[in-house]
Specification:
- It is a single chain.
- By secondary structure, this protein is α/β, with parallel strands linked by helices.
- Helix content is 65%, strand content 10%.
- It has a six-stranded mixed sheet, sandwiched between helices. A four-stranded antiparallel sheet has the order 2-1-4-5, covered by helices on one side. A two-stranded antiparallel ribbon has the order 7-8.
- The longest helix has 53 residues.
- The chain is elongated.
- InterPro entries: AAA+_ATPase, ABC1_TM_dom, ABC1_TM_sf, ABC_transporter-like_ATP-bd, ABC_transporter-like_CS, P-loop_NTPase, Type_1_exporter.
Amino acid sequence: MTLPNPLAAAGADRVSETQAPNASARAALDLFTQDLLPAPEDASRALLASLLRPHRRRVVLAGLLLIVQRAISQLGPLLVAYAIDHVIPAVRAHQYGPLLAVCFGYLLSAVASAVFQYAFVRAEARVGQDLIADLLSRIFTHAQALSIDFHQRYTSGRLTSRATSDVQALRNLLTGGLEDIVGAVLTTIYVSVTLLYLDWPLGLAAIAVGGPLYLTVRDFRRRAYQVYRERSTATAAVTAKYAETFTNIHPVQTFRLETSNDRSFMRINRRHARINGDSALVMGRYVTSSRLVANIGIAVLVMWCAFRVAGHDLDLGAFAAIVLYLRRLYDDPLKLGGVLDAYQSAVASLEKIAALLAQRASVPEPASPQTLSPSTSSRQRGRGVVFESVAFAYHTGSEVLPRFDLTLVPGQTVAVVGATGAGKTTLAKLLARFYDPTHGRVLLDGVDLRYLTTAELRRAVVMLTQEAFIFSGTIAENIALGRPDANSEEIEQVAGTIGAHEFICALPDGYDTDIQAGGHRVSAGQRQLVALARALLADPAVVILDEATPSLDMPSERLVQHAMNTVLHGRTALVIAHRLSTVHIADRVLMMADGRIVEDGTPGELLNEHGPFADLHTAWQDSLT
C-alpha cells in the first residue's frame, strides 16, 4: 500500500479550496449574504433598555430640557399675534412700552431656548457617546467569549460590520435623530394645543389634516423596515468580502483569484446597490407624498382663515400666528423623512446587533466549576488525559470522530499523523475544549473539562497553532501573554532557554522592539520561537502543538525543533505532525484515518509493523528524494 505525499496532498487541497469561487460565484454570494437568525421580537427593545438603564437620570434630564426648550420656542408666534393686535395700535398712539415688552420677551425667549438647547445637546451627546462605547464593549467582549464554531460560521468581516456600520447607524440616530423625532412629537402637541386655544374650529381642522400625514409616516415605516434590514445585511456582505480578500491577499494573488473574486464581488456589490436604490425610492415616495399632503392642507386652512379675517370673524394677529404655527405643525413631519431613514436604519442595525448578542457559547462556563489538583498545575505525575467513550459531530453534518477511548499518559509526547481530514485537528480541539464531545467526556487529571472554568483550563492546557500569531506590541509583551505578571528577567530567561534570546537582542530595540500585528517584521521561524517562549512562560501541564515547522528552512527548523523539545519536556503533549520529522521526538504515535485511530504505538513499533504509518513514512522519505 502506497500513500500519496502528504505535503502534495495538502497543497492540492489548498488549490482546490481557493479555486472554489470559479466553480460557483452564486455559492460565494450565499456565503456572504447569509446572516444570523433574527433575535426574539423584544430583544432589540431589551438591548436598548439595558443600554439606557445606567444613564436613566441623564436621559430624564435631557428629556426635561427638551420639553422646556420646545415649549419656550413656541412663544414666538403668540408674541407676533400680540404685537399685530395690540402693539401696533399702541405705537400709533405713541405708547412704546408694549413694543419694548414684546421685543424683550422675544429676545428673552430666543436666549432661553438657545440655553436649554445647548444643555440638551450636551446631555444627549454624553449619553449617546457613553451608550455607543458600552455597546462596542459588549460586542467585543461577547464575540470573544463565543465558541470557535460560531466564528467559523460567522466571518470576521461580518463581525466588523456589526461593530462599525451597524453601530454607526445607531450613533446617527442618537446624535440628532432622537431629538428630531421627540421634538416633532412635542411640537405637534404644543402647536395643536395652541391652535385650539387661538381658534378651536381651526385647531380641529389642522389636527384632522395630520391624519393623512400619519398614514404616510406609517406606510413609510412599513415599507422601510424590510428594506433597511436587507441593506444592513448587504453592507455586511460587502465588508466581509473585503476583509476575506485583503486579509488573504497573498494566496489570492498566488493562485490568480482576482478574476473569480471580481465576479463574486460584482454579485455582492450589485445586490448592495439594488437594495440601496430601493431604500432611496422608499424615501423619495415618503417625502413626495407627505409634502403634497402638508402643502394642500396648509393652502386650504390659510384660505379659510383669510375669508374669516375678511369677515371679521378672526383677528389679523391670530391669523398671522396661525399661519406660522401651521408651518411649524407640518414642517416637522416633512423633516422627519431623513430622521425616519436614520431611525429605520438604526432599528434594523439594532436587530442585527441584538441577534449577535443573543448568541450563546456552545462551550459554556460550568454552573458548578471544579478545580484541578495541585499535581496537575505543577506538572507532577497525575492521571493524565482520558478520552472516555468520546464521539463528535459538527452540528451541520455527520460524525467526524466515531466513538473511541484514548488515554494520554502524564509526561508523554504523543504525535498524531494522518491524511488531511483524518480528524487530527478535531481531536486536538476537543482536548483544548474548543468543542465539547457530542458523546462521552474528556478528563484532565480525572476532572471532566466541562466542569473547569476557561481560566482554569487555559492555565493547564495550552494550544499552539500552526500560524504562531504575533500581536501588535513589543517582543516582551508578546512573550508575556503566556503569563502577564512575569517580569523582564523571567521573560529573558525563557527566551534564552528556547534559543530566541540571540535574535531578539539583534533587533533594533531588543525586547522592546515594536512589531506589527502578525509579526511580519520577523521571520516565520522567529515567530514560532516567540510563540514557544510564550508557551514555556505559561508553564502548562498539557501542550497541544499543531505542527510548528511546515514552512521553515532547515536551519530554522532545527532551532524550532530544539525549542519544541524544551517546551514539551516533562509535559503531556499532543503534537499534530504534518512533517514526519516531528514524529521522531514523540514517545507514541497515533495514526488516524476517517476519524478513527487505526494504529497506536511507538514510532519504531509502527515502522516494524509495515502498516499505514510505515507506508506514510516511506512515501514521506520518497518525497525527500
